[in-house]
Amino acid sequence: MSDSLNQRPKSLPEATNSNSQSFDFSLSNKDKQLSDELSTLRSLLFGIEPTELNKIYERLNNPQIQPEDISRLLPEAVVLRSKQDKQLIEAIVSTVEEAIQASVKQDENVLSEAFFPIVGPATRKAISTALEEMMQSLNQTLEHSLSPESFKWRLEARRTGKSFAEIILLRTLVYRVEQVFLIHKKTGLLLQHVVVNQVTTQDPDLVSAMLTAIQDFAKDSFSVRKEDALQSLRFGELTIWVEEGPQALLASSIWGNPPQELRLVFQEAIEKIHLKLGPEINDFAGETEPFTASTPYLEACLASQYKSASQKNNYTYAVAFLGTIAIAFGIWGFFAIREHLRWQAYLQKLNSQPGIVVINTKQRYGKHFILGMRDPLAIDPNTLIQQTNLNPKKVIGQWQPYLSLEPQLTVKRAENLLQPPKTVSLKIDNNGILHTTGSAPRQWILETRKLWRFIPGITQFEDKNLVELELLQLQSYKKQIEQKRLFFSGGTTELIVGEAGKLPLLVSLIQKFLDTAKYLGKDVQIQIIGHTDVEGTKLQNMLLRQARANKILTYLKYQGINTSKFKVMGVGSSLPLQPDLIPEAETANRRVSFQVFITDK
After folding, report:
1. What is the mean pLDDT of residues 1-19?
2. What is the pTM of this model?
3. What CA–CA distances, in Å, run from 165 to 168, 176, 179, 572, 574?
């Protein structure tokens, strides 16, 4: 740093003297004039007074200089060097970068805390700008999405490959300021440039030079006054407006038809720029960095205006759009609610079925998933899907097999194992007792008394209401035999005409009765009872009654029936079949009847 400062102009050797006043008095008039010119040159080059510069040289050339003096001198030296060129900045850049890297490695919180007040507002501003642009595009899209022109614009978007929103913004645009240039009036150089987003731009310096050339061409080629200036140019839908200030001019490219009121915005912007940056514009020598401060004024000129659909059409389109949405939501809601109700009905049916346990349900990708357990004897869940009108393809069930002890399924399991006849009904109470009712073959009853223990869920077998089918048959044979009567001629043991035909059926019934009783282990006795009418003596009637009963017994024995279970007896007219007053009483009372007795062994 001290080396660069010591390289002062060779025309100022006297500046190294310690006494600047003796320097001024020792000069001749000619030299004094030359010294004044050099002082003026120093002032222009370095921006400081010659006396101040001499003080700096004296302090640097002093061998007794102290660090405190350097610390006071250093800011002045930095300012002095930065006004000459950018070498000091280029030299410091690498040092500052290394310092920042070292600071981050040592403690990253230092820089983060330093930038925190800046990053937050900058981020919020960027987000706000992006949201504002997005909302503007969305508003335009919604406003014209249902208009008659929208169908034509959609075709244009498809044909050109642009988005529908972009076509809407383009077709509803009244005007839009796309670029603003701040140009130095004297040199024609670009000082600052701003542009709206999503606008393709050329080199702004080239555009500035072209505008300046066009303006110079107009002044040189046409009879115009020098103080006159170019105010506007138009190329198709593109308009270029120029607002001239004392030292700079503002040029803007505008798409569409801008209103004249917009010029007031440009005039106000150029006035504010001259007010704030007048000295910088006046001293402009090619350095554009000071003019960054003009960006807010230039961005204020980036105005735009879009066509708005008529209020009536807006209401019509809005109502139609909202109506369409309402109808769509209504239809969707109807089908969604109906699907939900059907699904709930299906779940209720599943939960009400014995042997089905629903563990978990969920809905994903428009399908219903159900996880549960199912007894093999339970109803098929797919049949319930059809009953609730659900789409079977949208219901995916995962059923794990298990053994249910519910009474309904236990009865089914008992029926599958025991195979009861149709005359037997099975029922299981809450205590697991299997109750049987009806009649069944003796063999089935005996097997059931052994097999019921192998049925899960049954704790006891109850068959007190179950009657053996053979016992019922035995009772039926007994009743049929007791209803048989054989009638005889008066005073004889001869059957009347037609009674002999009853004997084969009687033999068959008695044989079945005896066989069934033997199978059931029952003791039986059949009494053959002879009867006579009131005619004749008691002795004659007693002998006749006995003879008639013995004749039937002999016939049965002759037919192969074991008559050991038979007993023959005769009774008098004390047990008449019909009263004697009836004309047919005599014939009815001349008979043989039967009485059967059944007892357990």
Report:
1. 39
2. 0.39
3. 5, 16, 22, 125, 123
